[in-house]
Structure formats: structure tokens, C-alpha cells
Specification:
Elements lengths: L2 E10 L2 H15 L5 E5 L13 E7 L2 H9 L1 H13 E9 L2
Antiparallel strand pairs: 1-3, 1-4, 2-3
Amino acid sequence: MTAYVVFIRENTTNPSQLEIYAEKSPAGLKGHPVTPRAVYGKHLVLEGPKIEGAVILEFPTFEEANAWYNSPPYQEALQYRLKGGNYRGFIIQGV
């Protein structure tokens, strides 16, 4: 069953770290069956605190989404994202 990885950026704390993340993160996608569905596009917060943006990535299964997130290439890039901003992230199974 399809699964989605969702990252919500609440605020940026270090733009230079996010630039490094942007350079490194594409390598983490190689070999993984991922389809980007939304990447920091226009958004409107309907409930809760404001956000800077969000990313939604689609994977064929929950396990494949989790495998991508925990893969060594993505984990290498992840450290820069976490130094660059405050995020919420989760995997949710589709219907």
C-alpha cells in the first residue's frame, strides 16, 4: 500500500546548512522508488501554527519509505537539514 513521507519546515535557523542539504539529498533518492508530490509549493495553513513549507514524497510501500529515510546516503544529508531548520516529519500509509 502506498505511503507518504511528509516533512514540515516550521522555520529556518541556518540557511547555509540547508544549502548543503539541498546539494546532498538528491543522492539519497537514487535507487529508491519515490515520486515527489509537493515540494515547498504554495500553501495555506488551515489549522495550527504557521509553517515555512512542506514536502510530500510518495513511496510504493511504508517499508520502502522507511528504508529510504534510514538509508546511509539520506542519513548523511539529514544532519544538514536538522542543523538548518526546525522540522516535523512522518511517514503515513495511504488508503
